Fold this sequence. Notes:
The protein is of the alpha+beta class. It has 2 domains: 7-133, 3-Layer(aba) Sandwich (Creatine Amidinohydrolase, Chain A, domain 1), CATH 3.40.350.10; 139-395, Creatinase/methionine aminopeptidase superfamily (Creatine Amidinohydrolase), CATH 3.90.230. It is 32% helix and 20% strand. It is built from 10 helices and 17 strands. The protein has helices spanning 7-18, 32-39, 62-68, 82-91, 108-117, 127-134, 139-162, 169-183, 269-288, 295-308; strands at 26-29, 45-49, 54-58, 76-78, 97-101, 121-125, 203-205, 242-245, 249-251, 254-256, 260-263, 327-331, 338-343, 355-363, 369-378, 383-385, 394-395. The strands form 4 sheets. Strands 4-3-2-1-5-6 form a 6-stranded mixed beta sheet, with helices on both faces. It has a 5-stranded antiparallel beta sheet with strand order 13-12-14-15-16, with helices on one face. The protein has a 4-stranded mixed beta sheet with strand order 7-8-11-17, covered by helices on one side. The longest helix is centred in the middle third of the chain and has 24 residues, at 139-162. The termini are far apart.
Amino acid sequence: MGPLQNGPLMRIKKLQKALSSTSADSLLLSYSRSTLYYAGTTHPAIFIVTPEDYHLLVMRGLDRVIEETCLDTDRISSGKGYKDAKEWLKTRKIEQGTLGMELDILPATQYFQVSELFSEFGIIDISGLILEQRKTKDPQEIEYTKEACRIVDHGHQRILKVLREGVTEIELSSEIEDAHRKAGHEGLYFIRQPDFFMGLGPLASGVNLSKIAGKIQSITGVGLSPSIPMGASTKTIKKGEMIVVDIPTHFHGYHADQSRTYVIGSPPDICRTMYIGMKEIADRIIEMLRPGVRCDALYANALTVSEELGMGPYFMRLGTESKRVAFVGHGLGLELNEPPLLGNNNHEVLEEGMIIALELEMSASIGEVVKLEDTILITSDGVEVLTITPRDLHKV
């Protein structure tokens, strides 16, 4: 078994060791991103973990699971659900105590069912434990992220070929999405937020850059209807309008998050000025990125630099809101937004192996908007920018 295949087994051992820091005696994990992380599969299953043992209980797709996972077959069995998970624990003489589950994403009805079935147990939320472990990436995760970044650049290359006056946002988005899919994008991305909805990613131009949906604190686009009011619309793109593309990609579970700004012809002077300032701020933050740096220090430094450059009135503003966005980046991995948040009041420090998205935007007035976002790996002595698309203001 090679080092890349061995990743899940090492993650399980680390999780078992981390269990000692909680009051949980055993864990029941059923979220697809968690079963992928620890067992290499997303088929319906419950991953049971104790300090000394683990087992994957598969509800459907057992034959496929056996093909996909690196777990030994004696640690896999078919089952009907939590009742069989309780029986497995009973064979290990675990008949009471505390269960750990990812309660932030567990549906309420399922929680009540588990509570009734495991009436002898208390149930606690261990989502933070899982997300803490996922903050630093192993070599396999880094390679998958690099491939996602290669894929997202295919969308950029397609933009340069098809962007012209008169094309609609949805036509441009479709061209980008098609290029991503042909390059290996798996077609979805994951956000750990209940009832989240969006098309395949934000794309907006002109006045639509200043119309912000309530779901996320970022440029969203307006979408095609109130059903999904984010993403590309049927608006025609005009010469001189700013265009922001923030369509992520996903490869083997891992994401690339990249934003680039485009314009047909010449941009307004204020947009050119803002972009130069924004890139300078981004470059200065990148120079700071290294293990041991606090997230709130990065945010504070970004604000300081923006003031030094005279960009304070524009920096991290969305739409017509006067309130500044309270972060300049976020972690990235099995989900598009993960800890740590590079934001105000977050005392977490960067660690070697973290992958973050540095996400900066500026707004002067309606439609005068620019954005720059890159996927970045924290290394032992600095960073590696994983997104390969040139970080310029792209004039077509």
